Fold these 4 entries.
Entry 1:
Amino acid sequence: MSNLRTGFWFVLVGASAAFTHLAVFALTESHLWPEVANAVGFGVAFGVSFAGHRWLSFQDAGTSLWQSFRRFAVTALAGFAANEVIFVVLLRGLGLPSFLALFLALVLASAQTFVLSRLWAFRRGA
């Protein structure tokens, strides 16, 4: 699969997962601390992200489904850790509105997720 096609699907799947994350955050934020609502959004979006990346972005992966799932879970958790740190700094440190802080955190953490997904979680050929 070409890098252009991989990039296209990565952006589309990532945008779908980010929208899911933001929607769940919006629905839960009034009931939870923003940091917890962020975690709930991540949990729901994880399923969207894994399925889309496994079968669309990196369909030529040279790893088994189970191996990809385990590796992607580590990758996604690393991305969420970066997301949460950035989110807290923007929200609590700089006082940005929660939705804007989360959006920026998602954008900034996505590059890390792409690199780890491409080079490790869904590595081509084995």
Entry 2:
Amino acid sequence: MAKHYSKHQQSLIRNFYKNRDAIDAQRLQEIVTDIYLAGQGNKADRLWKRVADILGRAPNADPKQIAGLVEARDLETLAQIAGSRF
């Protein structure tokens, strides 16, 4: 079933994808704070999974580096990546 969007909806969708890198960078910065506050546990595990998903969408994503970062749970490196807008 084809979806037909109004011009306004098309504009919103287009702007979302146009600014997705900035949205992802901001979300990544928020996740750094959330991970720091969560410490260790299930919530931190879910947040690190989100980190992998967000970093995987980056145009220059290297799955091996992402997996290594998530496995090491290196919050300082993640904060540097988030600060540089990957």
Entry 3:
Amino acid sequence: MDTHAFTSDVAFTPTVKAIQTRKGSRQSYARVEERGGWQADITPDLAAFIEMQTSIFLSTANGDGQPYIQHRGGPAGFLKVLDERTIGFADFSGNRQFITQGNLADNPRAFLFLIDYAHRQRIKIWGSARVVEGDAEMMARLMPRDYKARPEQVILFTVSAWDANCPQHIPQRFEAADVAAALAERDRRIEWLEQEIVRLREASIVGAGE
């Protein structure tokens, strides 16, 4: 049972708050707590951000507290918002180490880290997660259409709290597909301009000969 006074207490432990006090940032975070702390429900804006991701990081820890981070990727929309507190995705077959699944069996606490390099945005999501095996209906709901991967199981993530970070120190990078599309559009524009130059030259020659 969650006994936190504020949603942000999932991260701001007494030890963290003591360090914040010593280093001078506690007062500003206390004002956030006075307003209710971080949000727990998935807002429409957050849902849109979640479902445009193509690359995410899922953090778990085993029963001894040893952390582990696993990358998961897929086409935009592979990470789906199922309701105001639940995120789900099809877990594709990989190297079959099953570290994340083993960790979640011993310790359901989990963390999602989402980053959009192009727009320099990042979202941190605290919660718990569980693996669902053998649910064909859920798998069909979460499996991206026409994506060439073999789904093995489903992971459902229950949100406890989330926070958006500032863009400071996030390098700006772009998806290869977006860069290719922009270059293709540039090339089309150049081709049109070259054709327009030829047309205008031909028109000027005709006009000069009249």
Entry 4:
Amino acid sequence: MWTVIYIAPTKSIAEKYQQALAEEGILVQLRPVGSSHQQANGSTEILVPESEVEEANEILTGIIGS
């Protein structure tokens, strides 16, 4: 089951975090929030498998904190 670990304010930020998590071996999916016409610039959910939530949160916290 996929779990939302973060909601990025824009798709480009979500893609940046997706790449960083993927480089650490975490499976990542992105899902736009809101209506379809806002997908390019709207908020985007970052999802990981439930079994990787803790590790992904640690990695993401390190990225956001730096």
